Fold GGDEF domain-containing protein.
Amino acid sequence: MMQKALNILDKNFMKVNILNGIRSVINAFYEKNIYCFVAYDEEELVGVITQKELISAHPNRIVADVMTDKYKFIDPSTPTWKIKEIFDFNKDISVIFVKENDDLKGFLTRTTLDIELAKHIDLLTGLYKSDYIFYNTYKLLNNGNELSLIFIDLNNFGTIDKKYGHINGDLILKNVAKILKENIPQDSYLCRYAGDEFAILTPFCIDRCTLFAENLIDAINSYKFPNNIPVSASIGITGYKNHNNKKGDTLSIIDKLINIASLASTKAKKRIDTSIVVENINAIA
């Protein structure tokens, strides 16, 4: 389950006054294993000091000379994926503070986030798991964006796994993940959904995604897999556009999108004339 800020924050911080000497901060860093010092000017939070700032800090300086203003605030209910977006968009910050009203609950670092996100990464392919798609679909829908969902399902993978062995099967899954990562459009989201199924969420129309899917089929068909094992894929596509600018039942729409795209890829497996099946669910808008 995807955690929120309150569940993963670090409470091991110390409040310091901007006029405090850095020597005392350095001592607390080494003696008390505190890695985040929150700088206050009276009652106002005005800066932060981390190990990064302490490395080059002269012990005779004061907090105000060393602290940085490169930080952000979030509330305790902020989802982990949103925290990732904040860090990705703000490359110069190393700390995000978690505040509820005026109460500082704790802080998050990139390391804390990476440890949490590691739980949501598929170890074989290095791709995010399915909740990554759920979160970003929810975000796009609530922002009123058009979106399309592409489901990629490998053909006869169970047979391949039995005939050539699990080691080759794993290599194929890693190779397919590599192909998808190298070909995914900008502003799109990729995950290993389950087994031999992958999903790509895009903020684009179905027609554009159909062209993209055709390129994916070609890329997979032309790739040299281990031991020249023949690998192909079937793709299901569905899209959604809220013409009435109504959010509606977002969770229900997400379930329908995933279900329809998955069923479309199953239909594509049974077709002999095409590897791509498109289904539209705008009727539920």
User: Anything to note?
Assistant: Residues 250-270 form the longest helix (21 residues). The two ends are 28 Å apart (CA to CA). The CA atoms of residues 94 and 109 lie 6 Å apart.
